[in-house]
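Chain A, query sequence.
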Amino acid sequence: MLTTIEKVFILQEIEFLGKASADHLALLADLFQEETRQASHYLFRAGSPCSSFYLLVEGKVELQKPDDRSEVIESGPVNFWACLSRRPTNLAAKCLTDCRLLVMASEDLVDALTTEPGLSLAILKYHARAHWM
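Chain A, predicted structure.
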């Protein structure tokens, strides 16, 4: 099992968390549980609300889009924005290989972003720079 420090190092590698403070990363690290899923397991299916935020540590996950396109993720966040929307997602996520994941309840993610405005601001600043500048 990963320690909190090891989880923080993983979180530091996620682009949109790059400007988050060490305290914020430690808070998130404590909320994540390490889990494994076997190949062919669906993390979630289209039409289902997101109940968990998945961060892929090892393995491959296929994001299946509604227009029959797909994208393969080999590390990083799987469904961050879908968790925030609290609506049924139009994506499905299927493990192509055995996967090691960090998993957090969607409610915990929303609570962390609500109670830690500095964390929310760091994420918003990243997206503003990445998409609008």
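The CA atoms of residues 45 and 92 lie 4 Å apart. The chain has a mean pLDDT of 93.
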